[in-house]
Amino acid sequence: MEFFLISTLNGVIYGLLLFMVSAGLTLIFGMMGVLNFAHASFYMLGAYVAYAVSSSAGFWTGLIVAPIFVGIVGTLVERFLLRRVHVFGHAHELLLTFGLALIAEETVKLVFGDFPVNYQMPDALKFAAFTVFGTDYPFYRVFMGIVAVIMFVVLWLLLSRTRVGIVVRAAERLPQMAEALGHNIPVVFTSVFGAGAALAGLAGAVAGAFYPTNPNMALELGVIVFVVVVVGGLGSLQGSLLASLLIGLFSSFAVGIDWSAADFLALVGLGEEARSLGGLLTMQISSISATIPFALMLLVLLVRPAGLMGERG
Amino acid sequence: MARVLLPLALIGAFLLVVPPFLDLGWQNALINILIASLFALAFNLLAGQAGLLSFGHAAYFGVGAFAVLHLMASIEDGLAFPTPLLPLAGAVAGLLAGLVAGFFATMRSGVYFALVTLAIAELFHSLAPHWQGVFGGEAGLSSMRMPWGGIVFGSLIEVYYLTLAWVVLSILLLWGLTRTPFGRLALALRDNEQRVRFLGYNAHISKVIIFAISAMFSGVAGGLQAISNETANYVLFASAVSAQVVLYTFVGGATIFFGPVVGAVIFTLFAYLVSDITHSWLLYQGLIFVLVMLYAPNGLGGMIHQHLRHREHLDWSRLAPPYAVTALGGALVTAAAVFLIETLAVLFSREYEVARRDAGGGFPGYEVFGLDWSPLSPLPWLIPLTLFAAGLWLILRARQPITLLWQQVVAGSVPGDSTP
Q1: Interface predicted TM-score (ipTM)
Q2: Residue spans per domain, chain B
Q3: Which residue out of A93, A112, A301, A304 would a mutagenesis test of the B interface target, given it has the greatest number of B Cβ atoms within 10 Å?
Q4: Pure H helices in chain A
């Protein structure tokens, strides 16, 4: 029961964090058809900017400066780089963002070094939110969850209840028609790209203080975020929320489960045969927990490429 | 034809005759160049010719390497198999993996295809460290090259000639493929898949075959690397390996056959020469890639090809001056970037942090390019700024005459030949 409760809590909060990053990615893809390989780099950039600012100006200033800075970087990338290669087609846009991800990683290594930096939450936030089964549950995890929930509510209200949201949704569905009606679609694209980058930057600033902040964090999170947006359905915000929670819960449960395929086969009397074959069949779920999200992603891509909630195929 | 054959013959003669006189470092670098070239060409069969952008080609490279290591281990245990034919194991493994992966991946196209290939490579990357029997766990597999038919395969030069033979043979096969009707079909699939289907071809099966052939030659490349290193571990499946081949191919130029070789040679040489001098060489590599994507979308090979194609219409007496100005501007901008990056690398290094602590928190002087600088003086910041501004000014100045001249060239040549 203790394992179940703690794992659920950790899973939901990790899922919410994944959602903060994947929300921008899926919005950008839905609108521009660009799969942004550099999106997780914005997350990393957010963590490092917050670290750099917080060491002199305090944690909260870092939390505010990081998303703004990353948002500006994102806007510049869209306006001056991505738009330039747009005429060469989607493959080139993909390759460009891919190159930018490489540059981001190397720049971070150049400036901050090829090792984790000591980005910590302030002491004021280092207390237990509550105690379950004799274990103190850190408040900071709850704080990360709250930030993500606030972000989701604001984003959802913005998209569904305001005029800006209507224009953005129109630009996503029928960009040419929206443009014909007098809306400046390139500006909408640039703003959405910048806003998506800022969200990833905020996620980085919040999560970097809890998880390790190192030059590999973009790569590590990047592939998982791809899994999330694919499983949820490229372009679907609700889908990516659902998939984020799914993957988050899965990763937090999988590390504690030591079943293997052989154990399942034993239920139908094939346990011995499976064990004698070895290899994949005797691997415990906990040791292949990194593999299963990719298997899930492959399955979704092959069976239902539109994802759980997506409409496009 | 002679125009193509002569340079190829010269390169061939160089690769045959010169290496025994080079030191071990250069021999090793040449082996890496050959392997990278083959890998990039195999990748480009899929990415450039069939238009299917794979972000997981490390999977087939790695599968080939592990297959060869298993066979090498069997030979060590007494299996009578000729050592020079080892890469065949890589080819078979790559082909089989490519058939299975290709069958699924080519069910999708565009971004979705890229994501499937990415997921397959990540599947290998995350499974291999836990799969002791096949991939040797985290440590990986190691083996030894066994002597065969009087050849010991102990020295690097023997490995070099083995690699050369296999790479040349594979490149000939890949080039031959582009001359067959099936090779033309790959291009047609890229340009208009619907029309291919309408003509009665089975597009899915054709794409699976192209994918499998590409994976097969990637497997040969991986196998050759396994023979040269005598070891492999799960890092071969890392996204960095898939990324490298993408870089080679698109910097070199995906639209022409030998383009990827240009990229592979440049980056492998670059890695060999520059990685000793600076820690930031991956940053330079990324910058080069992004600049090529922005300003030469068909790659460096595409640029060379365009000049060769229009060579009879090019008026070099008028084109040379603006080109020289651009080259000078480019050199200035490069110098500015290198100066700035190297300065920052020193100032952000741990050594400088220690020096600052020793100096009581001030900003002590530092050394870059063998000269002493002070971070507080404007000089180390003004130099790159001036170089950059001057270079940019030169490039912008030369741009208009070049564009004009090219417009005349394109207008004067065969109609329909106006690809930028």
Answers
A1: 0.87
A2: 2-296, 310-412
A3: A301
A4: 2-32, 39-57, 59-76, 83-85, 90-112, 139-161, 163-173, 175-180, 185-208, 217-232, 237-254, 261-266, 271-277, 292-303
